[in-house]
Every structure is written in C-alpha cells, then in structure tokens.
Amino acid sequence: MSNASNGKAVVNGMLLKGSLSSLRQVSAMVLGLLFASASSSTAGAQPLSKSFTVSPESSGLEVINQIGSIKVTASGSNTGKIMINARQVDGDARVNATQTQEGKVKVEVTGRGTVDFDIYVPLSTRLDLFTYKGAITVANLTGPVRARITTDGNIQFTGLRSSRVEAHSSSGNVVFSGELLPDGEYRLKSFSGSVDVTCPSHADFKLSASSFTGVMDLGGFPMKFDRQTNQLVEAAVGAGRAKVFLWTQEGSIHLRRKP
Amino acid sequence: MECRAVVSSMSDYIDKHEMWLSDIEVREIETHLIACSKCQSIKLELTEVRTAARELPLHTPSRALWARIAKEIEPEVPRSERPTRVERPALSWWARMKSRQFSFTLPQLAGAGALAAALIVFGLFRTSNQDQRDFNIIKAPTALQTALLPGEDTIKAEIERRLSVINGRKMNWDPQVRDDFERHLNKIEESLRYSRQTLQNNPDDRVQQQMVLTLYHEKRQLLEDVERLKW
Ligand SMILES: [Zn+2]
C-alpha cells in the first residue's frame, strides 16, 4: 500500500538516518531509509539495518529507546563497525541513527511504538543504553557501560570485562556476570527487582550492599566486614581493590562465586 | 565543538568521568574551553557548585550561575509548561538554600552528612500533608519548617519543579506509559514516606539517612528519564 495513493501521507514506518565517515557533513548527509507499512499488515516487523564505521579505540554508542528491548553484543571480529538492527514491533515509532563529529553513534527512537534493537559493537565500545520499558542485554564487552530502564525490564550483563558498569532498573532484575577489574567500579541497582552478581573466585573488591526489605545472600566469598546490619553490608574481599555497590529497595541481593 | 555540546558533557568532564567521553571528546572540550570564555566560566562555576556541595552548608553557588543554567535550559521548555516558582520569605541561609535548584551526586550529599546532627537541632521537621496524616504532627509555619537531612529541601524543590513540568505534559502521553510512570512514582513515594518516618524516630541512624537520600535520588532519576524522552 502506498502512502501517497490514498492522499494521506501517513508515515507508518521508521526513518533511519545515518552518516558515513565524512563526518564534517553529518547534518547534510542524511542517508534516509523510509518505508511505509500499512497498519493491517505485518510489514512493520521487518528489521532495518544500518552500520557505522568507528575507530575501535574511541567507539561510543548511545541508545535512547522508548518501549522495547536493547541487545548489544561485542565482538573482536568486527573491530571497525557498529551494526544496528532495529525491529519495529508495533506503533509508528521512528529511529534516528546519527554519528557525531567525534565519531560517537547516537540512536534515538521518537514517536510512539515498540522497537527492539539488536546491535553489534567493537569490544571496547563505551555504551550508554536507555529504555523506558523493556529488557537490556549486554554480552562480552570490555568498554564502560551504563544501562538504565525507567520502569519494567531486566538488565543482563554476561561475560563483561569492563572497568565501569552502571545499571539501574525500577522493577526488573539486574544480573551481572563477569570480571571485577582491580580499578573497576560497579554500581548495580534495582528498586523492586533482585540484584545478582557472579564473579570469579579470585575477585578482589570492596562491597557495599543494601536492601531495604529483601534478603541478602553474600555467600561464597570470605569477607572482612566493616559494617553489617539487616539492611546494609560493607565489607572487603581480599585487598578491596574494585568497588562494588549493590542496591535494591524491595528485592534481594545475591553475590555468587563462579564455580 | 559547539557550546551546547560542551555544556552537556561538562558534568562528566568535571567529575573526571572520562569513560563517558572519548579521548577525542576530552581534547575537543579542552580546545573549546581555551577559546570560549562563556563555557570557561560555566566550567568554573560548576566546579564551584561541586565544591560548595561538599562543604554544605558553608557556601552556596552564586545566583548568577543558576540564572545562566536556567537560561540554557528554559528555551527548550515551552513557556506554557514552565513551572511558576513560588517565592517564600527568606529567613536564613537555609531558607535561601531551598529556593536554589541544583543537583548533587549522592556522595556529595553524603559528604555533608556530618552536619546532619547540627541541622537537626533546628528541629522543626518539614513534612508533607501525607506525613502529617501519618505522624499527626502539629503544622508549623511553612518558613520555619526544615528538613530531616541537609540538602533535603534542595532536592525536594528540584523534584517539585521537574514534577510540575511533567504533570503539565502527562495528559498527552500514552495511557499505558502514564500508568507505568505513576505506579513507579507512587512506589517510590510510599517507600520514602516509610523511610522518613523510620529516620524521624531515629535521626542519627546513618543507614536510614542514606536510604532516604537514595530514594530521593531514585525519584529524581525517574523524572530525569522522562525528560530525556522529550514526551
Ligand atoms: Zn562555548
């Protein structure tokens, strides 16, 4: 169905804007992909893809979604590229993807609708991920990551080797598995979900864990306690090199040693 | 690099949160700061706010800074949606502080914690109507009411300002999105009331102080998120 033929220019699709490597012309070079889908058809489920050339050492990605999930996988094989796949689930949201002069890629959803992202990035990419509602998944990254879900959705980090991790969900679980690097800082928070951390037995960190009404299970690691109440535990594992901050208002906290 | 981009990265830059900025961005910011006196003085004054927050309540940032930040922000908010600021009679530095609107990171607020005990001597607990129903406290004149924690009134004022902007827009949101927002806001407010009550019974409990501050932070973050979505 054509938008123009019925006299009504209804844009029921997604617009993906991007720039190529000639960075100076970002605003001028709008590489537009515009397609329409009748609301009665399933054409909206067709994914859109766009890739950006980045330099692996300064690669950065910011995603601002509204409703829908964000899945980011880091790999060593596609070192110079950020590859974005966006799938419109419902509604008539638009996806804008642009690259700043500094090389950072910014993806933003506007309008109303659900969009799921499946993104591939170089290992050391700096990530800033945001969705109002929906899950966030990050795998195998070594760059810093910040992930935030305003309302409902789980955050899952697997195989991370990042020195800075910040995650927050209002009512969803935050699950981390990965290394705690000696100078690293890890802040994992959920209002009503649980916070679950799994790290290797050689991990060396200072822990601050607080849960207002939930259970705290910190088993597996021998600790020196600085403070220990029902709601707050401050302790060191080993020399206390990494900083780990876990918080949940209503959920439980689990700290596990990787078998 | 444009001033707007420099200003939006300034907070990360000053806090040395360089992981959110690439080396190239840091260099671009530094180059820009050398050339642009406007951004240079914003940087200086933001640094001053950070220092002032750490030394609360000894210093307050200059009114000029807030005016400048407000000038940066307000053109992005339609005039009809701007909050009207209610001026209260300024009795003391503390009352004057209430009318300031700037944000703190949690460690900065916690750093001011040592002053909590001294401030609680001022002792007239500022409570919302809901709190009064809960605790049956006799209402003191507004100007004399004070917070349980240093910085509490400031963060409350900031939250109220943001909330009034959002309340003006909320009617245009998707009903499901609005329900989700209100459900989360209510949950935080309920916990906050409960935590404040616990703290009121035991004002020196540092764990409770931290819990209350964390919940304020949580509430502010919820509002910041919605602003980020530009709904
Ligand atoms: Zn400037």
Describe the structure.
The complex is a heterodimer of chains A (259) and B (231). Among the domains of chain A are: 1-44; 154-259, no CATH class. Residues 1-44 of chain A have low confidence and may be disordered. In chain A, a hairpin with a 5-residue loop joins strand 7 and strand 8. Chain A is mainly beta. Helices cover 0% and strands 53% of the residues of chain A. Chain B has 231 residues and is mostly helical. Chain B has two domains: 3-128, no CATH class; 145-229, no CATH class. Chain B is 63% helix and 0% strand. Chain B has helices at 3-14, 23-35, 37-54, 63-73, 93-98, 106-111, 116-120, 129-135, 152-169, 175-201, 206-228. In chain B, helix 1 (3-14) runs parallel beside helix 3 and helix 2 packs across helix 3 (37-54). Chain A binds chain B through residues 57-58, 60, 64, 66-67, 100-104, 110, 112, 126, 128, 130, 132-133, 143-144, 146, 148, 150-152, 163-164, 168, 170-171, 191-192, 210, 212, 229, 231-232, 247, 249-250, and chain B through 1, 5, 19-20, 22-25, 28, 174, 177, 180-181, 183-184, 187-188, 191, 195, 207, 210-211, 214-215, 218, 221-222, 225-226, 228-230. Residues 3, 6, 32, 36, 38-39 of chain B line the site of zinc ion (ZN).
Radius of gyration of chain A (Å):
21 Å
List the secondary-structure elements of chain B in sequence, H or E. HHHHHHHHHHH
Separation, N- and C-terminal Cα atoms of chain A: 56 Å
| Overall geometric form of chain A | globular
Alpha-carbon distance between the termini of chain B? 27 Å
> Helical residue percent of chain A?
under 10%
Structural class of chain B: mainly alpha
Mean pLDDT of chain B: 67
